[in-house]
Amino acid sequence: MSKSKATLSITERLLLDFVKYKTNNNHKFFMGNDKIAMALGLTVNSAKVMINGLIREGYLIKSMDTHGRRMLELSDKPYLTIACVDLSNVDKRIILQEALNFKRDAEYYQKQYEFEKARADRLLAELTQLKLSNISINP
After folding, report:
1. What confidence tens digit (pLDDT) does each residue in 72-106 have?
2. Residues 6+ apart with CB under 8 A from 22
3. Are 50 and 11 in contact (CB under 8 A)?
4. Number of C-beta neighbours around residue 94 at 10 A
5. pTM
């Protein structure tokens, strides 16, 4: 089957449906590849390749707004939608993932803080010991 006659994959259709869902009521779609990938459970590179392919094939239109941000919108090219997918929880999934990432980062930085505090306490004790030994040597 040639590329021109190939149908869209389910993931490509899901991406188009996601853009359609997010641009409902004339909203602009500024989401970056990383957020799209997180929302749809893809890698960032897969999302980038898929978006570029859909732009090349004429399903998506890419433009820039006045602030230089990439804006995506659906073209009028027809595609078969995925009717059984509920996209209303996608934003919640992104927020939950970011919250988990922030929690993991906070735990990491807390451990780093404890490690550095223990190191500083140890260095302070060594410095105090050196000062005391220096005083006893030079009365």
Report:
1. 989 988 888 876 666 666 667 777 777 888 889 99
2. 29, 31
3. yes
4. 15
5. 0.59
